[in-house]
Amino acid sequence: MVQRAERRSAAEWSQIVAEFKAGSETGQAFCDRLGLHRVTFGKWCRITLGLSKPRQAYRRPSPARFVPVTIPTPPAFPTPPANRERLTVYAGDVRIECPMGLGVESIAQLVKALRHER
Predict the structure, then answer these.
(1) Half-sphere exposure in the Cβ direction for 102 (13 Å, CA)
(2) Phi and psi (nearest 5°) for 116?
(3) 98 in Cβ contact with 86 (< 8 Å)
(4) What separation, in Å, do the N-terminal and C-terminal C-alpha atoms of the chain show?
(5) What tens digit of pLDDT does each residue of 81-94 get?
(6) SS3 call for 57
(7) Partners of 91 in the beta sheet?
(8) CA distance 110 to 31
(9) 64 pLDDT exceeds 70?
């Protein structure tokens, strides 16, 4: 079983790279002496020189998966006709079907919430 290497902070890696630059050892000898993985050490050398970024710098924030929407309920909602007439509203690629009696303010609030315009 392969033993997982110790995790180090960016500050610790900065100190390790500075120690390497101050010395006269080859990269391989330095890594062997400290028990470092050569690839990881090389990655942190590039990061401290500004030639690369840490992995977290490349991550994009994940989009919201659920947006809560609160629509005020009118006090007396009219009963829809027997044929169940509905209003269809399109907001970009989203289709909203609502009862004909739903107020304009409620529809506008729902469309804004779907577009993430709070």
Answers:
(1) 18
(2) 65, 35
(3) yes
(4) 52
(5) 555 677 787 776 67
(6) helix
(7) 94
(8) 58
(9) no
Token pair, residue 23, equals: 């010395």
Beta-bridge partners for 96:
89
The percentage of residues in the chain with a pLDDT greater than 70, rounded to a whole number, is 64
Asked whether the predicted pLDDT for residue 33 surpasses 70, the reply is yes
The percent helix, strand, coil of the chain (3-state, each to 5) is 40, 10, 50
Q: Which residue has the higher pLDDT, 108 or 26?
A: 26
Q: What is the mean pLDDT of residues 112-116?
A: 72
**Residue whose pair of structure tokens reads 């998966």 in the numeric block:** 65
Contact, 31 vs 38, CB < 8 A?
Answer: yes
d(CA 84, CA 33): 78
Q: Where are the beta strands (DSSP E) in the chain?
A: 86-91, 94-99
DSSP assignment letter at 58? G
Which pLDDT does position 69 carry in this prediction? Answer: 73
The answer to whether the beta carbons of residues 102 and 96 sit under 8 Å apart is no
Q: Which tokens is 55 given? A: 């992995």
Q: How many CB atoms lie within 10 A of CB 96?
A: 15
